[in-house]
Amino acid sequence: MIEQATHIRKLTLHDQTSVQNLQTNIEDDYVVHIFPDLIENQTHAVYGVFENETLITIAGYSLFPGGYAMLGRLRSDIRYMAKGYATKILTFIIEDLKNDPSIKWIGANTNIHNHAAKRVLAKLELEQITTLHALPVREAKLLNGVKGDRWLKVVNPEEKRALLSSFADSQPLVFPYECYYLFPYTEALITDKHLAESTFYQNQTKDRFMIIRNDQKHEWFAHVKYFWDDAFEQPGFWETVYHYVEKESKTLRPWLDFSQEGFNSIPNLEAFDVEDGWALYGNWINRTNSN
Question: Are 131 and 112 a contacting pair, CB within 8 Å?
Answer without folding.
Answer: yes
